[in-house]
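ok trying again, last paste got cut off:
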Amino acid sequence: MELHITALLGQHGEEDTWTFGPLVGKSPAMRGVFALIAKLASSSATVLISGESGTGKELVARAIHTLSPRAAHSFVPVNCAAIPEELLESELFGHVRGAFTGAINARQGRFQLAHGGTLFLDEVGEMSAKLQAKLLRVLQEQEFEPIGSDKAVHVDVRVVAATNRDLRLATKEGRFREDLFYRLNVLPVELPPLRERPEDIALLTAYFLQRHSRKKGRAVEKVEKEALALLEGYSWPGNVRELENLLERLVILNEDGVIRVRDLPDYVCQSFAGQKDNALFPAIHLPPEGVDLDRLLQEIENTLILQALSRTRGNKTLAAELLCLNRTTLVERLRKRGLEPVRPVLTPLPSSAVRRMTAGDCSLTA
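nice, full thing came through this time. structure:
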């Protein structure tokens, strides 16, 4: 069906119950993440967020901080992969005047700036062995010496780290300290890639289109069903960040408030076409002994009929539409083959932990 933005998000641009602050999703995987965030936020133990690039790791870290008793204090992010190794130590721990060439003045590090609050170490797997050892000491002792100083500085900081690497494998290969991994991995949070939660794509699409329409002063209000099917069928290697960037581009280029197939880039359309060719029959081989073709085709047909009834919660009219059949034809086949109609299955309500925390104009990427 077509995606109408206001119908999904509300007449006044308010998201429905599938939001958790800046995080959006209605899939079981994301509802599980929301519930986990609500449980671990009150603790001061370290958190390790893992997930592919673009899945929203920093947003999860901010959500944890916002729900925690430390919310009144600072949330300080550091991208360990973006800062050269020789500068990262000073960024984290600070330095005293004259500690090295160019250290004209003393400088506080991010640990001191985050005192009482939360320090977010993004891409912690990129940290050098030297800094890993110093980080381990801070986590254990809650104190460190700035570069060039022999006086320990005590800090009260909760560390939330994130990585898109497999740190278990890195420890086995000697690229990451095993003791540091276990010290960081007290409370693990794993974010699913977008391709594993396609039921969230329509909701994210509506959210981003509305958000960027407001920012750009545009009025994109609808996505045609064919275009939505292409978006839901694409694998999104860049995850939520890639989806947001594409939708921002579509808002800028749109002229009539409707997103159509012709507006989508070729790589999205071509990817869907390749999946469609193999969707129903990915690998069919004739066995040496042959097959009973009539029986096999009937089994396939029965399976698809039952799946259609299950998807439509037993509604024969909607199931017939999915199968491109007349309703009377479907009913007759059910009667002749003795196929029992599927009882409706109610979708569970979201966890009570799912609630709003921050303003709705926050980006959904990390």
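cool. Confidence is low (pLDDT under 50) at residues 11-15, 341-366. The chain has 15 helices and twelve strands.
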